[in-house]
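Continued from yesterday's entry.
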Amino acid sequence: MPPTHFADLSAEERIDAVTKLGLPKFRAQQIARHYYTRFEADPLSMTDLPESARGKVKDALFPELMAPIREISCDDGQTQKTLWKLHDGTLLESVLMRYPDRATLCISSQVWCAMKCLFCVTGKLGFKRDLTWEEMISQILFANTYIKKRFWKKEDGTNYAIRNVVFMGMGEPLLNYENIRKSLEIMLAQDRLSLGRRHITISTCGIIPWIEKLIEDKVDVKLAISLHAPNQELRNQIMPIAKAYPLEELMKTIDRYVKATDNRIFYEYIMIHGVTDKPELAHQLVKLLKGRLAHLNLIPYNENPAIDLKESKKADIQKFKQILEEGGITVTVRDSMGREAKGACGQLGYEKVKDQN
């Protein structure tokens, strides 16, 4: 377990912590304002704290949970992949993406991944451990600090900050459910990160019991399903976890989730040449999703050094998309931001896997 951090503490616990350091109560709110509003995580830079207090606040309340050890930019500086070293020496990655009107952070929920999806680099690494909720929140706070230091501004002149968080990095989020749920509390709390429910997305391979848990706990954020095939046989080939959670049962569970939340579901579908891009599969997708509250994202396959697959041709993707649209399915072809930095969908951990092959 990581050491106790300021982010762990409730408002009352913050007051107790600063008074134990010999500081007045109001310093707790002052530090929280620096941390959550100004994205300042280093007490040595909090100039309205007494200089004599900054060091002991840092030592007592701001242990280093994770540190960036490599940053790779691409897309003309719009995408930033960060390699982290955690307090126990393990490594993981997250990806920051800047759009004209928002900044989106793709965060990891586990160290590597146990799902072993055919197209995904991260699954080739296997599973090492769950991330704590503090480590997930740290990824967001670092990204906001990164943005602040580089003076990122929108076209209207206002400052960027992380607006959208997607659990689409390393790991299967629902297999780390309790830490995910706690991190969501921090993201949504008005006195902490104050993100909107519609700006947080959990992406899952379709772990049925934990989707049911989302329903039970009334976790009302956006849900993305890694579908990648419209039938059980092909899904088994692409995603080993599909054998444990059959597609028919998964879709019934998703229907219950939609009924409980009235949320549109985002379905992710990988476009692999000669594997998933055949016209008959597009027709099957229409049949599967017709009448459901759904948005389908087509994701061009991104290079995996451990397996010989090819990205679908642009013409085939457009033909596939046309069939879906003619069938009444709302569909988007996903931009492959981060590809140059090996930070696009399915590429996290690329350098480590490449070294192994």
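--- second protein ---
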Amino acid sequence: MNEEDMIRAIQSTGRTQVQGLQAMYRKSAEFRRYFIRHGLNSEAAEDLVQETIVKIFKSAGQYSGGAGFSDASANAWLWSIARNALVDIQRKNKP
């Protein structure tokens, strides 16, 4: 399932939504590696992955696609949520 399909599935209900969330959890390994590469330890990275998935789930209804760039824009949308979650946690933990 590509990123566009994941988001569309999460926007739906029932079994389709569950399948979308399962696909998102498979993608979450990419987010985890990104967070660790940017300075988080494994536990903090896992917490942030969970927070990111919740944010994606809550905001999936706002995703409307990308004017012909469907999968690329869906991937960019997901990564912007992950990146913003990382920036938020870094700001919060800044001395």
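The chain has a mean pLDDT of 89. Residues 22 and 42 are 21 Å apart (CA to CA). Will compare against the first tomorrow.
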